[in-house]
Fold this sequence. Notes:
Largest sheet: 5 strands, antiparallel
Number of helices: 9
Shape: elongated
Distance between the termini: 122 Å
Low-confidence stretches: none
Number of strands: 8
Strand order of the largest sheet: 4-3-2-1-5
Amino acid sequence: MHLLVSVIAIAGLWLLQKIVLAVVYRRVTDPYTRYRWRKATTYIFIVVGVLVVGRQWLEGFKALATFLGLVSAGIAIALKDPLTNLAGWAFIVSRRPFDVGDRIEIGGQKGDVIDQRLFQFTLNEIGAWVDADQSSGRIIHIPNAKIFTDPVANYDKGFKYIWNEVPVVVTYESNWQKAREVLTAIAFKHAEHLTAEAERDLLTASRQYFINYRKLTPIVYVSSVDFGVRLTMRYLIEPRRRRGTVSAIWEDILTEFAKCPDIDLAYHTVRSFRSTEEGKHEMRPTAGRTHRRRDDPPPQEGA
């Protein structure tokens, strides 16, 4: 009888969930809302099923409490990792450090959250061997307990924009002031429209976090490296548009620099330098002498 009631209860709850989801799917087309309904109904029916089936096989909740009290120490030792994962799931559901659809980084793994379960959550991996935070195609399953031990970086919570930098190196002989003006114009072309949106988003985020950015407009910084002058473009961008924006910016850079004969991109080269011929005049061996040495070459005619 207990077995029959248990089977009927499980089948009934499963059928009821299917009916509820069928009604929801007819009225809701948003994938995220459907996902939340599916998860919520699964958790609810699991709890109800445990209570119904447990009541059939145990003599009331008093016996259940006594049983749990006797085996709690053994469960805590034998099932340490699953229980920690359950605690991690409860923390994720209650505090919401991330939601499905968010882009996060945890324990060195980066990706978009595509699923949350009792013992693990799933990422659609980005990065790895792929540049600019684009998808690698791999699915990563991470235990919920990681939420307690590893830092979590969320690209979408709080301030939803990130700072991106594009370094451009020109030769020392180039007109670097003009190059900086060109790069500033390009940065404003691709990122200025985000400034007003970022200011509004920053105002909202500042109500929860102490975020204090004094300058949100694009800027170009100047520094020196061993083979040229480095001009670093810094601008705000949405995380998922990073690679496309960098590609568009470099197309504009190459196009504009091609129009400027006094600007050349720098790259690592090897050059020999003879100080006696190319150095300063005062550093040359013959500089400042009023008479010729015996071993000096004869003067050229007309010199």
